[in-house]
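Lab notebook: predicted structure, single chain.

Context: the supervisor wants predicted structures on file for every construct in the current expression panel, including those that have not yet been purified. This is the next one on the list. No modifications to the sequence; it matches the entry in the shared construct table.
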Amino acid sequence: MKRLTVPFLITAILTGVYGFGGFNLWGTEASRVLFLISADLFVVSLFAKFLFRKRARVAQRVES
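Prediction complete. Output recorded below exactly as produced.
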């Protein structure tokens, strides 16, 4: 989900411009629904990117 942040952002922007841009076509309502879905998925993936970061493990040497 973290690697899909940018595609969700691009999809949200494109469908938002098409859906709310004032076009009077048959796919406008579907585009608005796709905008809401992709915007929600963008926010979820953005939270996942910041909350679940991989932390670098530092190996410790044990001397005996």
